[in-house]
Amino acid sequence: MPLLNLTDVTVSYGQTPVLFNVDMAVEKGEIACILGRNGVGKTTLLRSVIGLNKVMSGSIVFDADEITKTPTYLRARYGISFIPQGREIIPYLSVLDNLKLGMTAAKNKPKKISEEIFEFFPMLKQHLKRQGGLLSGGQQQQLAIARGLLSNPKIMLLDEPTEGIQPSIVQEIEETLKRINREKGITVVVVEQKIDFARQLAQKFFIMEKGSVVANGHTADLTDALVHKYLAV
């Protein structure tokens, strides 16, 4: 059984449908990318998985548990971590306090930050007392991912983690996500606009258009024809 399985999921904002009959299955240990032009429902899909958008019909199953109506805080304790677009760290808190917030979402709350976090993100150790808002965009993104990792997740959902970040840091983020996946066995689902990043990072892709999944498969099958049809601006 897939770790995350969406079946016929429909989501509306008020009376306006945004997702239509979405089916999506992500296996344990996979890295998957959700692709699509702006406004096709990618962020809404992630927000629906973590419980920030109400599902009108269909079902979401995570690790064999039906979670369609489960509150967001419980989904976090089940092992779903969400790193939103724009990072949403708390700018006036220190890096250390931002990291501690991540631990509060864990089912079994750790008493201290594991040194392992600084093996993945060595930069953070140098800035523990610094306000989060004073970090660069790339550093803030690393902080946001580290905070999500401290909830001890089974799956991490990342919404456009490379947005507005310089190429050298994008490369670091790619390598770190691969390490987290490989060394900790954490499943990763990334909403992304950069096709090259998706091809290099993920094993599986889903393409969305007008609120529906219109193509999916192994990343090796993400052809230029598909990119031109669904993703070219």
In brief:
With about 230 residues, the protein is an alpha/beta fold. The protein has a domain at about 30-50 and about 70-200 and about 220-230: Rossmann fold, CATH 3.40.50.300. The protein is built from nine helices and ten strands.
Q: Stretches where pLDDT falls below 50 for ≥5 residues? A: none
Task: Specify the helix fraction band.
Answer: 25-40%
Distance between the termini: 36 Å
Number of strands: 10
What is the CATH superfamily of the domain at 30-49 and 72-202 and 222-231?
P-loop containing nucleotide triphosphate hydrolases
Which CATH architecture of the domain at 30-49 and 72-202 and 222-231? 3-Layer(aba) Sandwich
Can you identify the CATH class of the domain at 30-49 and 72-202 and 222-231? Answer: Alpha Beta
Oligomeric state of the chains present here: single chain
Pfam family, one: ABC_tran
Keywords: Amino-acid transport, ATP-binding, Nucleotide-binding, Transport
GO molecular function, one term: ATP binding
Family: Belongs to the ABC transporter superfamily.
Report on the architecture of this protein.
The chain is an alpha/beta fold and 233 residues long. It has a domain at 30-49 and 72-202 and 222-231: Rossmann fold (3-Layer(aba) Sandwich), CATH 3.40.50. Helices cover 34% and strands 27% of the residues. It has nine helices and ten strands. The protein has helices spanning 42-50, 72-78, 95-103, 116-120, 122-125, 137-149, 167-184, 195-201, 224-231; strands at residues 4-13, 16-26, 31-35, 55-62, 65-66, 80-83, 155-159, 187-191, 204-209, 212-218. The strands form two sheets. A six-stranded mixed sheet has the order 6-7-8-3-9-10, sandwiched between helices. The protein has a four-stranded antiparallel sheet with strand order 2-1-4-5, with helices on one face. Helix 3 packs parallel to helix 6 (137-149). The chain is globular, with a radius of gyration of 17 Å. The model has no long low-confidence stretch (mean pLDDT 93).
